[in-house]
Amino acid sequence: MTQSIINSTIKPFKATAFHNGAFVDVTEQDLLGKWSVVFFYPADFTFVCPTELGDMADHYEKLQAMGVEVYSVSTDTHFTHKAWHASSDTIGKITYPMIGDPTGAITRNFGVMIEEDGLALRGTFVMNPEGEVKVAEIHDLGIGRSASELVRKIQAAQYVATHDGEVCPAKWQPGEETLAPSIDLVGKI
């Protein structure tokens, strides 16, 4: 059993990303000061991965309006990301940074490296502006993720962060009632 990544602070890293037609440096400092999603996937030019990355691209504008930046990460290089972006209509619509992690350092920092394959599990991590992990979700390779469910989780995390003493129940949506845990609620839900 390992220690939970929840509430841990992002570890230092330096990498190169393909972003908006250019190669850019990205460090953990770029994730501070705003909500961030680090979205790991196994490899470029595969099968489930483009469906997930395309789904994230479809939700990217909404996430940006919520003050959230998205970073996708695989153990491919930034050069491979550029080639995939240029050759796939689905990946071509991505405007968030696509980080290359060929050494696996970032992937290992988040605990999602499949060592024998040199690939990442499907891991999604949401960090608050202080760089603390507030949501962690890890899937086996054959199970794709849903960006709309991720949006809901981020909305809940942002709500809880700004409403001291309130928590969001299952399936909570913005505008719905929250809970204020107290002894009076014990056994009443």
UniProtKB/TrEMBL annotation:
It is found in: Cytoplasm. It catalyses: a hydroperoxide + NADH + H(+) = an alcohol + NAD(+) + H2O. The keyword NAD does not apply. Its EC number is 1.11.1.26. Keywords: Antioxidant, Cytoplasm, Disulfide bond, Oxidoreductase, Peroxidase, Redox-active center. GO terms for molecular function: NADH-dependent peroxiredoxin activity; thioredoxin peroxidase activity. Residues 4-159 form the Thioredoxin domain. The active site is at residue 49. GO terms for biological process: cell redox homeostasis; cellular response to stress; hydrogen peroxide catabolic process; response to oxidative stress. PROSITE patterns: THIOREDOXIN_2. The keyword Oxidoreductase applies. SUPFAM superfamilies: Thioredoxin-like (SSF52833). GO terms for cellular component: cytosol. Pfam families: 1-cysPrx_C, AhpC-TSA. Thiol-specific peroxidase that catalyzes the reduction of hydrogen peroxide and organic hydroperoxides to water and alcohols, respectively. Plays a role in cell protection against oxidative stress by detoxifying peroxides. Belongs to the peroxiredoxin family. AhpC/Prx1 subfamily. Homodimer; disulfide-linked, upon oxidation. 5 homodimers assemble to form a ring-like decamer. This is Alkyl hydroperoxide reductase C.
